[in-house]
Amino acid sequence: MVYIAIVGKGDVLIYEAKLPGPSSGKVPPENQLQFIVHQALDSLDHKTWSGTSMYLKQVDTFNKMPVSAFVTAGHIKFMLLHSSSLEENAIKQFFYEVYRLYIKVAMNPFYLKNTPITSSAFNDRVRTSARNFFMR
Amino acid sequence: MHTLFCTKYVFNSLSEAGYGVGLRAIELLSFREKGCRKERSIIQMLNFVRTTVWKSLFGRPADDLQISNAKKNEYYIYDNDPVTCKYISNSNAARCAAYTAGIINGILDAAEFTCTVSSILNNNRMVFVIAFTSKVIARDSS
């Protein structure tokens, strides 16, 4: 099980999903997932300004489950809570794929930045790419 | 008709329209042109605006980028021939650069370089005055 959260400016949650992924030992209960990701935002902010690359690898851990992050040019944060058995390369490719999908949503002139993403096509494509990259 | 065009409302609306373009331009151009790298310092960010953004929007890089001598938080981007003002046969043509100023503002705000951008015509060149907030300057100098 892999949990993705897309956080916009001012720590506003734009999108979240539980995605198919390699089975991990202990999965945190549903209501804790958001707290875990929210807690990781501090170390993410710190790491954002330390380099120029968008993929921030691992920013935090919770009970041996790492939280990886990716910050876009417009400072939209993609955060992934996953098991430690997931390869870094798979996560990086997944983030670039979600970035591509996010840009397509953002280009819509009717889409207001920082509002929730309700597009079902976006949802389906994120789940498909999660299946492609994580279920190998 | 003539008086309607001169009101401040028109140019504020132009700015806002440009702001939306700027928000989208930075995501798209960082992905396409810059190979997924984000900028860290003010000078790098402004060079990105001056070259990459200007080239993709107007087909050529902007003419000059300078920092103000007097105020440390002001930067100037010069454009000798702004496209948005070219074909307007009204005395307020120069104020239509508010659209481009809005674009620059959108790009910088999205990248967490909060600022105000205004456009002024000076010696037949259009100057975009970018004034950053003190927080941005403090972060940049550290």
Q: What would your notes on this structure say?
A:
- The complex is a heterodimer of chains A (136) and B (142).
- Chain A is α+β, with helices and mostly antiparallel strands and 136 residues long.
- Chain A contains four helices and five strands.
- Chain A has a five-stranded antiparallel sheet, with helices on both faces.
- In chain A, strand 1 and strand 2 form a beta hairpin.
- In chain A, helix 3 (88-107) packs antiparallel against helix 4 (120-134).
- Chain A is globular, with a radius of gyration of 14 Å.
- The model of chain A has no long low-confidence stretch (mean pLDDT 90).
- In chain B, strands 1-2-4-3 form a four-stranded antiparallel sheet.
- The model of chain B has no long low-confidence stretch (mean pLDDT 89).
- Chain B starts with a helix and ends with a helix.
- Chain B has five helices and four strands; from the N terminus they run αααββαββα.
- Chain B is globular, with a radius of gyration of 15 Å.
- Chain B has helices spanning 2-6, 8-32, 42-58, 98-110, 134-141; strands at residues 64-67, 74-79, 115-122, 125-132.
- Chain B has 142 residues and is α+β, with helices and mostly antiparallel strands.
- Chains A and B meet through helix 3 of A and helix 2 of B.
pLDDT averaged over residues of chain B: 89
Uncertain residue ranges of chain A: none
Strand content of chain A: 15-25%
Give the integer mean of the pLDDT values of chain A.
Answer: 90
Number of strands of chain A: 5
Oligomer: heterodimer
State the helicity of chain A in percent bands. 25-40%
Taken in chain order, the helices and strands of chain A follow as: EEHHEEEHH
CA-based shape of chain B: globular
Give the count of helical stretches of chain A: 4
The number of helices of chain B is: 5
